[in-house]
Amino acid sequence: MTSVGDSIHPYVVTTTVENWNRFAAINDEFIPHSMDDQAAISEGFPSAFGMGNIQWAYLHNMLRTFAGVNGTIMKLEIQFRRPNTKGQTLTAQGKITAVTDGVISLDIWTQDQEGNQLAHGSAVVRPSTWVPA
Amino acid sequence: MSNISEAMQAAVGTVTGRTTSYPISESDIRKWALAVYWPGQPPAMFIDPAAAAKTVHGGIVAPEEFNPFAWIAPAHEAFIKNAGKLENNNPDNPEIALGMSGPGLKFQLNGGMSVEYGVRMRAGDVITSESSVGEYSEREGRLGLMLFSRGISTWTNQKGEMVKRTTGTLIRY
């Protein structure tokens, strides 16, 4: 998987308050709208929703698998577009956009089980397993 | 009507402070990895010293997105002398930290992030973060006029090596 247009292996996780509570505990990120449906509803959302930082981590999980244990994530940027609400199956995905001297650029995103993008951005990675085509 | 005051605009580029972490422990790294991979298992390189020793890193390193400043930091040097007291989840915190009035918006969201990584964080590292004020902008969104404010932080380790440079975007409405 080192050609432009190739998709990389996705990272899939069903997201609930169990995921978010664990993340809140390590990142001291106890935001009411990620803990309490009523707090999220009062802000105009349908239910509690996950922190952006945990989607950020899931995208890193995907890129680490792609890069391998000796690979390097060099750059990453994303914009959040929709909330990751309770019970969604979140899939982090990536598609290769450029390959230059062992450095791979990708479009990356997260989406829900219906294909709606939750976050979108780009990444630059130097995989440990990369070999010239 | 814009929520970006002249004082907010003038603050762009201001270096606001420097925070130093406690030394990172292998336990901190294991807990982080277990949480971000839950309900799956994290890669052995984050939890097993023997497996980590066989990698190019020669030992356990932290996941790139690891935060050594969560919960508590032993040292924070504020460069803004008239900074106000921050309150948990107060959307005006970015301006309170600058000693000025915020726009008084009710809600806040993480709008996005960008990062450039340098060296990896590993057990024993002490990380220093220097923070500065990034650009403000506005646009209409589904929930009304949205204020976008950006914060820039540069992390270095105890050797002065760059760990990462991050720009975070906060959306308020």
Tags for this entry?
heterodimer, A: 133 residues, alpha+beta, Thiol Ester Dehydrase, Chain A, five-stranded antiparallel beta sheet, 4 helices, 5 strands, B: 173 residues, six-stranded antiparallel beta sheet, 6 strands, elongated, FAS1-like_DH_region (chain B), HotDog_dom_sf (chain B), HotDog_dom_sf (chain A)
Question: Can you put this structure into words, describing what you see?
Answer:
The complex is a heterodimer of chains A (133) and B (173). Chain A has a 5-stranded antiparallel sheet with strand order 1-3-4-5-2, covered by helices on one side. Chain A is of the alpha+beta class and 133 residues long. Chain A has helices at residues 17-27, 32-35, 37-42, 52-67; strands at 11-14, 72-80, 89-100, 103-111, 117-126. Chain B is 17% helix and 34% strand. Chain B has 5 helices and 6 strands; from the N terminus they run αβαααβαββββ. The longest helix of chain B is centred in the N-terminal third of the chain and has 12 residues, at 26-37. Chain A binds chain B through residues 13, 18-19, 22-23, 25-29, 31-32, 43-44, 51-54, 56-58, 60-61, 64, 69-70, 72-80, 119, 121, 128, and chain B through 31-32, 34-40, 43, 45, 55-57, 63-65, 67, 70-71, 89, 107, 109-117, 143, 169. Strand 2 of chain A pairs antiparallel with strand 3 of chain B.
TL;DR?
The complex is a heterodimer of chains A (133) and B (173). Chain A is of the alpha+beta class and 133 residues long. Chain A has helices at 17-27, 32-35, 37-42, 52-67, and strands at 11-14, 72-80, 89-100, 103-111, 117-126.
- Fraction of helical residues of chain B: 10-25%
Strand content of chain A: 25-35%
Enumerate the spans of chain B where pLDDT stays under 50 for 5 or more consecutive residues: none
- The number of helices of chain A is 4
Q: Termini separation of chain B (Å)?
A: 13 Å
List the strand order in the largest sheet of chain A: 1-3-4-5-2
- Please name the CATH topology of the largest domain in chain B: Thiol Ester Dehydrase, Chain A
CATH topology name of chain A, in short, is Thiol Ester Dehydrase, Chain A
Mean pLDDT of chain A: 94
Give the number of DSSP strands of chain B: 6
State the strand order across the main sheet of chain B: 2-1-4-5-6-3
Strand content of chain B: 25-35%
Assembly classification: heterodimer
Structural class based on helices, strands and sheet pairing of chain A: alpha+beta
